[in-house]
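If it is no trouble, might I ask you for a protein's amino acid sequence along with its backbone structure tokens?
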Amino acid sequence: MNANPLALFWEGFTIESYAQIDAQSLLIRLQPADDYLPCCSGCNQHTLAIHDISTRRVRERDLFQYRVWLDVPVRRVRCTTCGPKLEQIRWLPGRQRLTAGMVSWIESLVRLMPIQHVATLLGLHWHTVKAIDHRRLKREVTEPDKRRIRRLIMDEFALFKGHRYATVAIDADTQQVLWVGEGRSRAAVRPFFEWLGPETCGQIEAVAMDMNTAMDLEVQHHCPQARVVYDLFHVVAKFGREVIDRVRVDQANQLRHDKPARKVVKRSRWLLLRNRGNLKDEQALKLEELLQANQPLMTVYVLKDQLKELWYAPSEADARQRWQDWLNLAMSSGLAPVQQFARRLKGYVDGIIASAVYRLNTSVLEGMNNKIKVIKRVAYGYRDNDYFFLKIKAAFPGKAR
């Protein structure tokens, strides 16, 4: 039986001595094992020729309440092939000051805890822990198979306060995050299509997005055969902000001399914006009474419901007919906010009609964006965007086709 059972953790070495440095630290001095030939780290050949020996102090995983340090005699061998070369120590690769076991332990912890918490727990510098996790992410995040990418979903999320955004693109079929980049302009999203390359861009069939002109134009430039599909949620939400809210405020202003009625209209925002199926019985009754009493609000509410139907058409021909019917109703409504919105929406009609062929939307990506917010909040934000974007890719590796 080995007289030093702890030496089993450090291949090629035995324990020479150990001492308590302070109440929280333990120092273990190692020595080369007599029956272990050093190995050249360059060519993996064993040799007896030693060029010189230096002692390196490294950090090992904690033992009970102690932080463990090792004094390791690191030899340079005189290799006949490589010349003077550091010996290969499998549990202490390269010139690190942390053992492989310690690095593995840190990698496990950062999957569960913020970097700052891991650094405090282990008594390490924040940058040390971050560098280890960064290397892990680069090792584990795999490149997608570009040959199989056919449909994309693109959206943006807030990086910081102050209108700073990033754009994320995913494979619509596997839900793997393909690319994340800072900004939402044409110039910001162009590197994504350059990364895809002409061959992959040439096989893209459809790209789902909100009504973002920058993304739209860049898709048309790099993937001219791809259909742009505008997301239902974003268009209807835009209708709610620009039309329903405007009409509601105008109606409330017209009722300034009837304070009870004005109060009802002013407080009706969420009743008008929420889907009827999500309302409780009492709320549904209030909505019905409101719409019966106010014709302009009834008009915009009906137009909102009919606008949604454009995305559920069984064919492009039917979708185009539904659009024409909706446009006629909007232009004949007599409501300026509705007419103005309808005129602007004309430029995006092809992307709405395309949903009849490609049933794509950004709802999956919206859910991912919520998880991205959690990743950012848990870490109290990220100072390094490259590292943050790797975190996002690691969180969404995709699913098998």
User: Anything to note?
Assistant: The chain is about 45% helix and 20% strand. Strands lie at 13-22, 25-32, 50-63, 66-79, 83-86, 151-160, 164-171, 177-182, 206-209, 227-230.
